[in-house]
Design brief:
It contains six helices and no strands. The chain is mostly helical. The protein has one domain. The protein is globular, with a radius of gyration of 15 Å.
Length: 125
């Protein structure tokens, strides 16, 4: 029974994070560049931390957070690489959301903040 409660908690947090992430990504008002490009990165990392903890409930939370944050940073660096297959994937909405399109070194602190926040959410049931 406790496992169901944990899953429901993570499902609710996951749903809220998805809504927040899209709200940040598509916010059109003042400061939209910051919201759309940087702050949305926080929600992106939190989403993956929650999803992996939901899929692998017995995994060590810290390892999930470190892995997600490192992979997100690698994906940021991958935005410097433009082979045709990646350009094609990035031209699609889902590819744009998952892979990003433009390298920005200033995104890294937001990924770290997202990892820390994700860790706070998944470290205990």
């Amino acid at each position: 029974m406790p496992e169901t409660r944990i899953n429901n908690k993570f499902l609710a947090e996951l749903f809220i994070t998805i809504l927040l992430g899209f709200a940040l990504k598509y916010y059109p008002g003042p400061g939209s560049k910051l919201f759309n490009n940087s702050l949305a990165g926080i929600a992106y990392v939190i989403f993956w931390c929650l999803l992996f903890k939901l899929i692998f409930p017995h995994a060590v939370s810290f390892k999930i957070v470190i892995s997600v944050t490192l992979i997100t940073c690698l994906l940021e660096f991958a935005q410097l690489w433009h082979p045709p297959f990646l350009n094609y994937l990035r031209s699609l909405w889902l590819g744009k959301i998952l892979l990003g399109t433009t390298f920005n070194i200033s995104d890294f602190p937001y990924y770290i903040l997202g990892g820390f926040t994700g860790w706070l959410l998944i470290k205990s049931p």
